[in-house]
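Predict the holo structure. Ligand: KG4.
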Amino acid sequence: MTKNTMILGIETSCDETAAAVVENGTMIRSNIVASQIKSHKRFGGVVPEIASRHHVEQITLVCEAALEEAKVTWNEIDAVAVTQGPGLVGALLVGISAAKALAFSKGIPLVAVNHIAGHIYANRLVADMHFPLVALIVSGGHTELVYMPEHGVYHLIGETRDDAAGEAFDKVARVLGLPYPGGPEIDRLSREAENPIEFPRAWLEEGSYDFSFSGLKSAVLNYVHNAEQRGEAINKANVAAGFQESVIEVLVEKTLRAVGEYGAKQLLVAGGVAANLGLREKMTAAAQKHAVELVIPPLKLCTDNAAMIAAAGTINYLKGVRADLSLNANPGLQLT
Ligand code: KG4
Ligand code: ZN
C-alpha cells in the first residue's frame, strides 16, 4: 500500500492567518483560520501594515494548532506548502518565512503555491475534479476565469480589467453606507428589493472573457449622488439588487459560454464572492440548463483558508515541484 501524502498548508496573502493539514489533497485533517476582519473593519478595508503585524503574532500559534487538531506529528508531514502570491507582499512574507523555517528545521520539502490555484483546489476538498474543467474565481482581490485540461495545468482565459468582483461589492456597499466587508450586506439587502434599479452590463468586446466592474461602480455612484443632489431618498435594497444582478448576469453568462466553448465536464466556482446567494442560484440554474456538473464549496472553503493551499500544494508536491530557501513573495504572481 502506498503511503498517504500529508501536507501542512500556510496562507497569509491578505487578512487571514491560516494553517491546515490535508491528507492526499482531498481530506481536511485540520483547517485553522485566524481572521483579522475586526481590526480592519473600522478602516473600511484591509490595512497592509496591520495585516502583516497580525500575521506575525498569529502564525506560530496557528501552525501549532493545525498539527494538534489534525492529531499528526511532524514525522508524518511530507511537505510544507505556502502561498507565494498574489497578495500583499508584507503579509505573504510572514507565511513564507514561517514555512521556510519549518521546512528547514524539520528537514522536509518546501512547496510554493499560487493563491488562485488554491481557491480552485478548495473544490477538491468537497468533490472529485473532472477534466477538462472551467473554474471561476471571484474574491476581494481576484476575478479570473480559468480552463484546466488536467491537474495543475491552468490556462487563464479571462480576468478583470479593473476592480475585482468582491472589491466592487465592497465599494458599492460603502457608497450605500453599509459596513465592511460589503458583499454579504449587499447580498442580504438584495433579497428585500422589490424594484431593482437597471444598471448597465459590461460585456466588453465580442467574444471576450474579460470582466470590468469599474463602469458599473461609477453608474451606481452617479445614481446615488444624483438622488442626493435632488434631495431624494434612495431605496438601498433596489440599488443593491440592481448592482448585484448586473455583476451576476455577466459572470454567469461568460462562464457558461466558456464551459460550452472548452467542452468542460465540470464547472468550479470559488473565492469569497462564491458565497453570494444570488450568484449561487443563477449559476446553479445555468449549469443545469447546460448539463454541466457544478461545484461550489461551502462558505468556509470559499474564503481564504490554508486547506485549499495544502490541496493545491499536494499536486505540486506529487509532481516533484519544490521551492528552496531562496523563495520570495511575488505579489503579482501569475497563474500561467
Ligand atoms: O476570498 P476572500 O475571502 O478574500 C480574498 O482573497 O479577496 O473574498 C472576500 C470578498 C470580499 O470582497 C467580500 O465582500 C466578498 O468576498 N463576499 C461576498 C459575499 N461574501 C463575501 N460578496 C458578495 N456576496 C457575498 N455573500
Ligand atoms: Zn483569496
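The first helix runs from residue 37 to 41. The longest strand covers residues 27-35.
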